[in-house]
Write a structure and sequence with these properties.
The chain has 22 helices and 13 strands. By secondary structure, the chain is an alpha/beta fold. The chain has 4 domains: 93 residues, no CATH class; 146 residues, no CATH class; 195 residues, von Willebrand factor, type A domain (Rossmann fold, 3-Layer(aba) Sandwich); 30 residues, no CATH class. It has a 7-stranded mixed sheet with strand order 4-10-9-8-11-12-13, with helices on both faces. It is globular, with a radius of gyration of 34 Å.
């Protein structure tokens, strides 16, 4: 028994699911994606469902735990947001990003430019790694474009502001051309036309289009950020130089001719204000009489320096200060959308316990695992699996009346025997992927945990040497933090010496088996999708926290084509009966813990045939 929970009574952690929304599907999908990214890139990406907001702190992606995922659009936004932020974690050096913005004279403008181009770079990289993320990101863009409101950088609506027009063109042009977001093509012309009507030179867009062709050659990872920063500098300089030159040409026009001059001239003039008109005649800037201010030379005016260029730069800076109010980051827009849609259910969300999260084991804790014994146990298992593999891939030769001539049977021709031909049937390598799910509750502490860890390591080592796909994970549960820790993901790299030395997890908490199965089955399906058969083996020593959750998780896994088998360690009779009924007889209840390695290997061998 685990956690002191009575099997006959209602489980203490079982919830009334009729009054709650189910986020297990989206949680499993996002967690599978995050763990896959972490395993294949070597950089940790965590996903946590809690609170009301969606944001990323550079290491962990936080998603709101609300009913927004009931609708398909909400699920796609969550997936697209996760893909976007995961790519930031993989490719954006946050410290360098922050330092690059500080050095600029107009940081609001430069930050928007850098953000737009960086989003294009990281999304191209995540789509290259995982092509399925493209439809997630496109779904987010479609949803964001539904808001036809001023300030939406993905839709040209009431474009009466130069920063809005210029940055909107930069965003839609770079995404439509270099990320193939075809839905934005119509907005590119609208933003450009609006900017030209406000006095922005047409030549500026031509030069920007030419400069942006460098986006094609900029790759992912941190190394690509240096090249992207250089491109952002070039785009920034082009915009500043053209708008400065346009401002100079407007200043040369006759100021007395009313109605002449461009919208750009009027915008920066209104942004900077006319200080002379606000001051009374005969006073200085502080409102004091001029006579009080001329202490050195009475009646004689001081010659003021020419500050025309400085004023022009100040006007341009004030004009683009408004650039900071526009949201150009797709991840930020998606996160805000998730938070807004979940409004009204956040209080109920906070009252509920947090859901299980998927993490990668860091192998830093001293766990109970006999490394030397695991290596010894892996030898006979490897031999048995090798024998089965050799038998399955061996060609079968059959003598028949047609086919290729068999020279060894030609002597039967004079005797009238026509069976002198042979048919060769090639062998087929077993296509089986195995994932081992270990109970990490507090009742497994001690000898049970050591035997389970040792047996799982032996299985992983034996299968690894034969290139058989195997994965191992363990789950722990408590009210505050429930985790499915991945020791080895299916399809991942070799087991290192560090992993062997600290294999396993420290048992704690209760037994959230249903939630663990809900996450482990999609992990197996995603990481071992090239295999015909997928086997999920559960090792547990007691009753789960929620019986309905296990039954539901089992049915969902079977519907997806996953085979399941349960190995129980000293289960009470009523728990054994329930488990046999749930797992349709695919259960073995061990009376002694030391039988676990042998029976585990037998299960794998029987399914390998």
């Amino acid at each position: 028994m685990t956690g002191g929970v009575s099997f006959n009574s209602k489980p203490i952690m079982e919830e009334d699911m009729s009054n709650q929304f189910d986020t297990s599907n989206i949680q499993a999908a996002v967690s599978v994606f995050a763990v896959t990214v972490s395993a294949q890139s070597g950089k940790r990406v965590n996903v946590v469902f809690e609170g009301d907001d969606a944001f990323c702190d550079g290491e962990t992606i936080y998603l709101p735990d609300t009913n927004v995922y009931r609708k398909r659009s909400g699920r796609l936004i969550a997936l697209g947001y996760s893909a976007h932020e995961a790519s930031h974690v993989l490719n954006t050096p946050m410290e360098e990003y922050a330092n690059a913005i500080k050095d600029k004279e107009i940081p609001e403008l430069y930050q928007s430019i850098l953000n737009i181009l960086e989003d294009v770079r990281i999304e191209r990289d995540i789509v290259r790694r995982y092509p399925g993320t493209k439809k997630w990101i496109e779904a987010v863009i479609r949803d964001v474009r539904k808001k036809k409101e001023k300030g939406n950088m993905f839709v040209a609506t009431e474009v009466d502001d130069i920063p809005y027009a210029v940055l909107g063109w930069l965003l839609t042009h770079s995404r439509s051309v270099y990320n193939q977001n075809t839905s934005l093509k119509s907005e590119v012309k609208k933003f450009r036309k609006a900017a030209v009507n406000m006095g922005v030179p047409e030549q500026m867009f031509t030069e920007l289009s030419s400069a942006l062709t460098k986006l094609i050659g900029i790759g992912g990872e941190y190394s690509g950020f240096c090249n992207l920063k250089a491109l952002a500098d070039e785009v920034y300089d082009i915009i500043i130089s053209h708008l400065n030159s346009q401002q100079d040409s407007d200043d040369k026009q006759d100021p007395q001719s009313e109605g002449e001059g461009s919208d750009y001239s009027r915008q920066h003039a209104s942004g900077s204000g006319n200080q002379e008109s606000s001051q009374e005649e005969g006073t200085d800037q502080n409102g004091r009489p001029e006579a009080d201010n001329n202490s050195s030379d009475q009646g004689e005016k001081q010659e003021e320096p020419d500050t025309g260029n400085a004023d022009d730069k100040e006007d341009l800076k004030k004009l683009f200060e408004s650039a900071g109010k526009y949201q150009v980051d797709l991840g930020g827009l998606a996160g805000q959308e998730l938070a807004d849609r979940g409004e009204g259910s956040s209080q109920r969300s906070r009252r509920r316990r947090s859901r299980m999260r998927v993490t990668l084991c860091d192998f830093t804790q001293n766990t109970q695992c006999d490394q030397s014994k695991a290596k010894l146990l892996s030898v006979p298992l490897r031999r048995s699996l090798q024998k089965l593999m050799d038998e399955s891939i061996r060609e079968e030769v059959r003598i028949s009346r047609r086919g290729k001539v068999c020279r060894r049977k030609l002597h039967k021709v004079p005797l009238g025997d026509a069976k002198v031909f042979q048919k060769v049937t090639p062998g087929v390598k077993p296509s089986l992927a195995v994932h081992l799910l270990i109970d990490g509750s507090s009742s497994m502490c001690g000898w049970e945990s050591e035997v389970a860890n040792t047996a799982s390591l032996a299985l992983a080592l034996a299968c690894e040497s034969l290139s058989i796909d195997v994965g191992v994970s363990a789950f722990i549960g408590s009210c505050d933090d429930r985790q499915l820790q991945i020791l080895k993901l299916n399809g991942s790299g070799r087991i290192t010496s560090k992993m062997q030395q600290n294999w396993g997890i420290e048992p704690q908490g209760t037994t959230p088996l249903g939630e663990a199965m809900d996450l482990a089955a999609p992990l197996l399906m995603e990481s071992a999708k090239d295999y015909e058969r997928k086997l999920l083996i559960v090792i547990t020593d007691g009753k789960p926290d929620s019986v309905p959750a296990v039954e539901k998780a089992y049915q969902k896994a079977r519907e997806k084509g996953v085979e399941l088998f349960a190995l129980g360690i000293g289960l009470p009779s009523h728990v054994d009966d329930w488990l046999n009924e749930t797992f349709e007889g695919a259960v073995m209840n061990l009376s002694r813990v030391d039988e676990l390695p042998q029976e585990l290997f037998r299960v794998v061998i029987n399914h390998f045939r």
